[in-house]
Amino acid sequence: MDLNQLLNKRLLMLTGKGGIGKSVTAASLGLLSASLGKKVCIVESAPRSQVAPLLGFGSVGHQIQAVNPNLSIVNLEAQLNFRDFVVQHLGFARLFEKVFTRKIVQSFIRMIPGISELTLLGRLFHLCELDKVNNLSRFDLVIFDGFASGHFESLMDSPDAILNSGLTGPVVDETRRVRDFLNNEEKCGVVMITNSEELVMSEALEFIPKRQAGLGGLDLVIINKVLPNLKEDMLEATASNYPNLMALVNWVGGRSIDQESQRSNFYQKLVSLGEIDCIELRDIGFIETLQLDDVRSWFGM
Questions:
Q1: Tens place of pLDDT per residue across the chain (301 aa)
Q2: Per the confidence metrics, is the pTM higher than 0.85?
Q3: Coil, strand, or helix at residue 128?
Q4: Contact predicate 194/226, CB 8 Å
Q5: 12: closest CA among 217, 282, 177?
Q6: What's the distance, CA 248 to chain centroid?
Q7: Residue 145: beta bridge partners?
Q8: DSSP string of 53-79?
């Protein structure tokens, strides 16, 4: 899938093993989309924001904060998501204040399988479809810096868990709306991040069929942290002019060859899973604050 086509969706959800660059990718896609004139919101749901520091913020909470005129960020809290779901989606503000603020009711609600995940998905749906200013969508694109693969699957299974729970009433009606939205391939996309490590790629290959068959499907696989291919003439030049760097260059060269081998195996196995778009992003090392020019270079734009 062409990157521009992907960015034309309403919701992008990123997943993959922890520590492989989901947050950097989410922040980069947000910066890139905003530079194209889109109104973008990057969403997290984590104890501590990973995206905010990359965009020059120390921290961010449940309230949306603007990074620039086209880009905003928010870190959603589970308990407040439930309040938003009841008040904004179901329209039961008075009921929430009278009933759902009671501790015994809150304890009961938390026992319902999938309710926390559903309210998070409901918040994403609200940002994409219902959050409007002067009858125009507040955001053109919402990017969710999602959970690691296993937790992400639990998140995406939550609408069916609610629909099959025997519950009735407005919660079920809203769940169907959220599920239908997530299953709309023109509006929603799922991106899986991996890298060239053998274990990570093996886990990705196990995860991909589940994601293909699950709610939302799978639109793109990004292989992150790809090391450069050091050519023979570069090695010779380094040996002649910078002998002290040869140990480092040889290490990078060896790692690059190993990565190429892992990616070759990955692509061969990927073919058996059907047509899956895949792109590679080079290793950009440690990032403190993202810059748009660097992001454009990273994505080859």
A1: 678 889 999 999 999 988 889 999 999 999 999 999 999 999 999 888 899 999 988 888 889 999 999 999 999 987 777 777 767 766 666 655 555 555 544 444 554 556 788 889 989 999 999 888 777 789 999 999 999 999 999 999 999 988 887 767 777 888 899 999 999 999 999 999 999 999 999 999 999 999 999 999 999 999 999 987 766 556 566 656 666 666 766 667 777 888 889 999 999 999 899 888 999 998 887 788 889 998 998 888 7
A2: yes
A3: helix
A4: no
A5: 217
A6: 33
A7: 14
A8: HHTT-S---SS-EEEETTEEEEE--HH
User: Is the alpha carbon torsion for 185, 186, 190, 193 positive or negative?
Assistant: positive
* Cβ-contact 75, 62 below 8 angstroms: yes
| Residue 126, burial from CB neighbour count under 10 angstroms (0-12, 13-18, 19+) | middle
- Structure tokens belonging to residue 80: 């407040």
